[in-house]
# Entry
Amino acid sequence: MSVYFLSDLHLGAPYFPDSREAEKRVVAFLDSIKGDTDAIYLLGDVLDYWFEYRYVVPRGFVRFFGKLAELSDMGIRIVWLIGNHDIWIFDYIPTELGIEVIDGSLTETIYGKRIFMAHGDGVGKQKASFRFIRGLFRNKLCQKAFSGIHPRWTVPFAYKWSRHSRAEGEARGIPDEHVLDSLLQFTKHYHNEHPEIDYFMFGHIHVFTRKVLSQGCEMIVLGEWIKTFSYVKMDENGLEMLKWS
# Structure
């Protein structure tokens, strides 16, 4: 049996030529591994936008959520580390789908290897503007105020923001080398204090890469499911970086 890691699916993103086909691709992948996995780790930005309300469910993602529920009901452990796009997961997804939702980092031992996991937006040095927005989005009072605005306004605004952010990222070059370097500096510093870590696993910057930090320790960035469709498979024989076709 194997364990799988993937991130940055950005399901529902307005820049997909066909959002339904993008969702079906992910569902097909999950269906293909259900007989070969004990656990699936989703390292953030799984949805391009999601805001949970107390009594209603946002439109979309029916096939994806259905597949996650099926896998969870089969006894497959699913862990979702929220990113900077799917921040506002509260009660619905963990309760209805049986998924473990983590806001922050997670360190676990898998097949004898100690793995530090995080989406990547909250580690390393970030621009002051990004830190401000990140803090604002996680502020409970701001979340409550936002929930009072009708979705007919908030959903189009969120997707417009996402499209603009994507366009800016492509203009300056993806991946952002500054952010990649920041992750490297973070991992090196963290590993000095926690030498037991064998792998650091991140998403966020849409690059599929594997870098050796020191003998016996590596940093892996999981790529994305917009163009690359990349993931990591791990079993008792080691770790593989793969792409879904």
